[in-house]
Amino acid sequence: MLLIIIFLSDCISAYQDEMILNNNYTIHNVLTNIFIFVIVGISLYFFHLIEKTNLEKEKITKLYEKQKYQDLTYTFMKSAKDELDRFEHRMIYKIRNVKLEIEKHDYDEAIKLIENYRDEIHRINRTVYTGNGVFDTSMMVKLKELEYDVAP
Question: Can you give the pTM of this predicted structure?
C-alpha cells in the first residue's frame, strides 16, 4: 500500500513538474504539488504509527507467551517437587519394611523390596533446567511420558 501511494504521488508529481518546466503551469499546478507532498507525508506518518503499534503489540504478545511458559515451567517443577516429597514419604515405609525383613532373616524378600525400591527410583524424573522455558517444559512433558531418568 505504501509503495502504491508513493508510486502514484511520484507519477502525479512528475506530470506536474513537466508542466511547470514547459511554462504551462498555473498556481493550481503548484498547489497540487504541495497537496501531493502533504498527503504523502500524512500517509507515511500514519503508516509509521501503524508499524509502531504492531511492534508494540508483538512485543506484548512475546512477553505474554514468555510469562505463560514460565508459569507452565513453574507448575511442572512444583509438581515434580511434590512427587518427590510423596515418593520420599513412601520410601520411609518401604525402608522400614526392608529392615523388618532383614531382622526376620528373610533376605530374599528384602532383596525383592530393594529391587522394587530401585525400580521406583528410576521412574522419578529429575528437573531439567536450561533457562529456556519452552524447551524445559516440553522436555519435562516428554520425559514424564517416557518415564526416563535424566541428569540435569
Answer: 0.43
